[in-house]
Amino acid sequence: MGKLFAVILFCSFFFSCEEISTPKPRAYFRIELPEKSYTEYRSVNCPFLFEYPVYATIHQDTTFFNEKTENPCWLNIDFASLGGMIHISYKPITAKQSLSKLREDAHKLTFKHTIRADYIEESLISNKNGVSGMLYDVGGNAASNIQFYLTDSTQHYLRGALYFNTVPNADSISPVVNFVREDMVHLIESFQWK
How confident is the model at residue 171 (pLDDT cuts 50, 70, 90)? Predict the structure, then answer.
């Protein structure tokens, strides 16, 4: 009986010397960000041009809530490798769609994110090509972290919003949001009306 007890005691000491493992905190996959490089978007049908990243693709947006879009110059700039997309909508300024109404619509659409946003910062836009507008940085777990509108104040109005194909989590998408924000700023700085 003593030998059996000694063997059991020896085995328990032998197996108890294993390293205790502790669960690792939840982490996110490392994202490989592409090198910055830009190309020009120019369409014979749209009254604007701008530069966008070569690692993105542009597609015409043909439906809006299962209806035909109101303008053929609605675009999607797809960052497929990053899981994001900038939705661009163009509208001519008319008596029915005045600049003040379009600006107010942009403001309302951005501030709908107040429920989930930690903050919303507004920055005035004015580029060397006579384009003006507003850039909205929406912090926190909002569905769209960056939005903007651009105008010439008389004829043209364009709105853009960045969305990702994932549940909003500011901690996990922050590096990608910051990366794409640089591309959006480049788009804004290079933007011009025809």
Answer: confident
